[in-house]
Design brief:
With about 140 residues, the chain is α+β, with helices and mostly antiparallel strands. It is built from 3 helices and 5 strands; from the N terminus they run ααβββββα. The protein has one domain (about 25-144): OB fold (Dihydrolipoamide Acetyltransferase, E2P), CATH 2.40.50. Helix content is about 30%, strand content about 30%. Helix 2 (about 30-35) packs across helix 3. About 15% of the residues are buried. The model is unreliable at about 5-20 and about 85-90 (pLDDT under 50).
């Protein structure tokens, strides 16, 4: 009986793990910089909800302080996840109004809206104090 339970449990673990995704693998800073079309120091100033081509979207609004890579205006829109009527999902990345830091954003879509795909693509103002010199060096190296 004990052996049957262990076998059943082991089978369940194997089946369950086959359907799980490792969403947030560590990505080297050089890869993050290379894959980012826009790198900015900015403040998250709010969320707006719009409909584009009959699809409802939640957009985060960033007020740009400094541009480290790319060209952009003073305000940038990014896709954000908001699941108001459901539990938080494992792949949600949440931001708060007033949150400041470095944003490593991917190429904008045809509507000019950028994406942040993983938590590593945002570096808080506190973390930035130690990471900025290394990131600036990587940006400099990749521009040559």
């Amino acid at each position: 009986m004990k052996r049957s339970i262990l076998l059943l449990l082991a089978s369940w673990v194997i089946i369950a793990s086959a359907h799980s995704d490792a969403m947030w693998l560590a990505v080297p800073d050089a890869t993050l910089v290379k894959n980012s079309s826009l790198i900015v120091e900015a403040t998250y100033i709010g969320t707006t909800h719009i409909t584009i081509n009959k699809t409802k979207s939640s957009l985060g609004v960033l007020n740009i302080d400094t541009i480290l890579k790319g060209n952009i205006q003073e305000i940038v829109l990014i896709y954000v996840s908001t699941h108001k009527n459901s539990a938080q999902r494992g792949d949600d990345i949440n931001f708060k109004v007033g949150q400041q830091g470095l944003w490593l954003l991917t190429e904008p879509d045809k509507n000019g809206i950028y994406k942040i795909n993983m938590p590593q693509e945002f570096i808080s103002k506190e973390q930035l104090k130690t990471k900025l010199p290394k990131l600036l060096e990587i940006i400099r190296q990749q521009q040559h």
